[in-house]
Amino acid sequence: MNIELPAHEARVIGCLIEKQITTPEQYPLSLNALTNACNQKSNRDPILELAEAEVQAVVDALSRKHLVLERSGFGSRVPKYQQRFCNTEFSMFQFTPQERAVVCELLLRGPQTPGELRSHGARLATFADASEVEAALEALAQRDGGPMVLRLPREPGRREARYAHLFGGEASAARLATAPAAAATTAAPEQLELAALDRLSRLEQQVRHLQEDIERLKRGDR
């Protein structure tokens, strides 16, 4: 797999896939509609506040990658954009409805558990049960051209492991895979620092008490 999407490119592609499915009558999207979709408060993580100029720059970059196409309707003076990332005639990827929903949600919301993907993706495809989500994730992880999703180490307190898309490149995948380990290695120095500060505070208190005792002896107090 040779597609790498920076965060804002992933958001734009995710929004175009989402709107193509949920509001086909309004698709393709104008720049204004696409900007609103990118900055939408629901079904997004993180929440963004992109300007139209920023979204236009992202669209231009995706156009150069042949992942977005300008397609305006007859008589329309406003440029409109559609995705060529998946499930189109010239796309590299052809997904089942369930796989497409999973990919879209991961692009829009970042790493999620199968349960979260089933809940969030229900507006994009039908999932009869959790096993269909897991089957879609397994298929995406076993693609012939290389895995498209990565199962992350289960976090403390979570019943399910999260999955992340791998369209951010190998470096992104490595960071995702090692994030829990990195957090564990940084926790120890923080704890040591807190312990050292606690010991220092106790020593300072002992020194103050000794100084008070010395002053009382000088005054002849008992």
Considering the protein shown, what is the CATH homologous superfamily?
Winged helix-like DNA-binding domain superfamily/Winged helix DNA-binding domain
Helical fraction: 40-55%
CATH architecture: Orthogonal Bundle
Low-confidence stretches: 181-188
Task: Give the tally of β-strands.
Answer: 5
Structure explained in plain terms:
There is one protein chain. With 222 residues, this protein is mostly helical. It has a single domain, classed as Winged helix-like DNA-binding domain superfamily/Winged helix DNA-binding domain (Arc Repressor Mutant, subunit A). The protein is built from seven helices and five strands, in the order αβααββαααββα. The strands form two sheets. A three-stranded antiparallel beta sheet has the order 1-3-2. Strands 4-5 form a two-stranded antiparallel ribbon. The longest helix has 50 residues. It is elongated. The N and C termini lie far apart (82 Å).
Summarize the structure.
With 222 residues, the protein is mainly α. It has 7 helices and 5 strands; from the N terminus they run H-E-H-H-E-E-H-H-H-E-E-H. 54% of the residues lie in helices and 7% in strands.
Which helices and strands occur, and which strands form pairs?
Elements: H1 7-22, E1 29-30, H2 31-38, H3 52-64, E2 68-70, E3 80-83, H4 97-109, H5 114-121, H6 130-141, E4 149-151, E5 163-165, H7 170-219
Antiparallel strand pairs: 1-3, 2-3, 4-5
